């Protein structure tokens, strides 16, 4: 990075010359009749209009990471850079990424369009409202809740118990003040008062349904079987019982089509859907990944946060419901993250410290061994930063060689995968794709829910055991009574630690994971296990990124990363 001008992501993106989206579509083999343009550089693809070429589905490369730190590891940047490098090597490649949520964009985490010379464009539009998919999901979710509360107000024919409504309203924003609210105040004409609350949009079950549906008919079916609450005699109630699956599908009929954009190097990218990996399943839409597999020989996708969260859920949830089992896995690591997991504070990460890396590498090692439990040998992609020393990079390369793991240093932020920054990583990934694998899920769906959760916390997190609250045990009995115990589990856990305590870095041992509640998502098809203090409606930090943002007189954004 040292020979790159000190430009930020937005400035680099503005310097890029984008191709008209019709040209990107043509490059990807997308016919004109399947393309619905949203301006010059964005479009939606109608998968129904894609021709059947008869080609074998493309291989999937899943990009994951070691446990994230506040220093940032650049997983999306590495995903984009790797895809560009594979395209440069002559491969037919497409990217499948999640859409950013406004909550982290305006909060602390930032956007999700990559960085430096490895970005998807137009990054400012992708990081803001894009094509309106999240607004559609928010509207569908809140339409459902408006219809539920109206049904209660108009006589409550379904015998809905207002105390046992499990669906919440949502907003695509970090707003802690809305976690718990009282609605219906102000007299008889204002509705029936009850306690309610908001989740962030990415935590909505409609987001999960949206991202697991294989087509419009599957979307409607999944929406219809969502459980929104219970009757006074504790029988579950679904969207189909309320008779509104049709209108929810109508609201989402355009949003469900994958979004086509491009990288700085001109690689086609599908950016669609966006559940968080710490409170949901953390993968882009199955429809986008399946569409990319139909069009390209290699599909590079990513799953949120560390491999203990997004990658595990990709393997055990998304790969169960869609034909997207990975043929190769990349674990992104950084010198900075290794040092932080070795006990170095964020303020001192620029100082050379191989001994701290030796302590922190236990975190990377556990992620590597976890991926191997799914029948895949990962490639370690080392995302180079300007402060990394040759001695530090040499040490991690030597450690990977000693562990028998293929590794490569990538400098895709500074030089891009379309330049020279990702050549070594692309070569390592192509080698992995050429080898057979024995992909398998971590657990059988026939296992009881408790045993599925125990398998994840012991095999992936390294915990001694799991402890369930009284409320979680009550919900467990309800899940078993209603026949939902054959669903996979979706762990909601802090992203910063293998444990449910964000302060326990590295590879902690001798801990117990505490499950405080279980939430059946019958439309998405999994059971969320809420652990520790993880929130489904985050809050803003003391100094939100929004405070640095503005707009120039010509309408161009200011302060956007």
Radius of gyration: 23 Å
By DSSP, the count of extended strands is 25
Strand percentage lies at: 15-25%
CATH architectural designation of the largest domain? 3-Layer(aba) Sandwich
Quick one: CATH class of the largest domain? Answer: Alpha Beta
Sheet with the most strands?
12 strands, mixed
What count of domains describes the coordinates?
3
| Overall pLDDT score | 95
Query: CATH superfamily of the largest domain, please?
Result: P-loop containing nucleotide triphosphate hydrolases
Give the CA-CA distance, first to last residue: 17 Å
In percent, how helical is the residue content? 25-40%
**Spans where pLDDT lies below 50 across 5 or more residues:** 1-5
Shape: globular
Short description:
This protein has 561 residues and is of the alpha/beta class. The chain is 34% helix and 19% strand. The protein starts with 8 loop residues before the first helix and ends with a strand.
